[in-house]
Design brief:
Number of helices: 5
Shape: globular
Strand order of the largest sheet: 2-1-3-4-5
Order of helices and strands: HEEHHEHEEH
Strand content: 15-25%
Structural class: alpha/beta
Radius of gyration: 14 Å
Largest sheet: 5 strands, mixed
Number of strands: 5
Length: 149
C-alpha cells in the first residue's frame, strides 16, 4: 500500500491526471503540486480542449498552485509530473521558483534537459525516473491508438 503522503503516492496521482488527459483525447501528461505533504493543485494536458498551445499539465498545475497559495512563488512546493517538462514549462517553473521537480519519463526530443544551462531555477532540486515505464507506456499506447485509428 502506498503512503498517502509519499513520493510514490504523489506520482501515482500525477499518472491519474495523465489518464484523465488520455480519456479526453489529450496527450497523457499529468501533474500535481505538493506543499507540506499534501496536494494543492492538479493539472493535465488541455491543449486541444482549450485550443491553447500553452495548456500543458505543468502550466495548469502552476497556475492553480499559485492561485491556491496566493503567491507567484512555489519555493516550498514539489511538482510531480509524468514526463520531463518542455523548455516552456521549465522556464515557467524557474519564474515560479519551484522548490523541487520530480518527473517520471525523460523526453529526449523535447525535454528541457537538452538545453544548457538548465532552464530551471538553480535552487530547484530534481529527481526523475520513478514510474518512468508506466508513463512511457501510457504515452506509447496513446500514440499507437492514434496511428491505428
Amino acid at each position: 500500500m502506498l503512503k498517502p503522503n509519499g513520493p510514490e503516492y504523489f506520482m501515482r496521482q500525477a499518472l491519474q491526471e495523465a489518464a484523465r488527459a488520455a480519456e479526453e483525447g489529450e496527450i497523457p501528461i499529468g501533474a500535481v503540486v505538493v506543499c507540506n505533504q499534501r496536494i494543492i493543485a492538479r493539472g493535465y494536458n488541455q491543449v486541444e480542449r482549450l485550443q491553447d498551445a500553452t495548456a500543458h499539465a505543468e502550466m495548469i498545475a502552476i497556475t492553480a498552485a499559485s492561485e491556491g497559495l496566493g503567491s507567484k512563488y512555489l519555493m516550498d512546493c514539489t511538482l510531480y509530473v509524468t514526463l520531463e517538462p518542455c523548455p516552456m514549462c521549465a522556464a515557467a517553473l524557474r519564474w515560479a521558483k519551484l522548490g523541487a521537480l520530480v518527473h517520471a519519463a525523460a523526453d529526449p526530443k523535447g525535454g528541457y534537459t537538452r538545453h544548457k544551462p538548465s532552464l530551471l531555477w538553480e535552487q530547484t532540486e530534481v529527481d526523475h525516473g520513478q514510474f518512468a515505464a508506466e508513463s512511457r507506456e501510457m504515452l506509447q499506447q496513446f500514440f499507437r491508438e492514434r496511428r491505428e485509428g
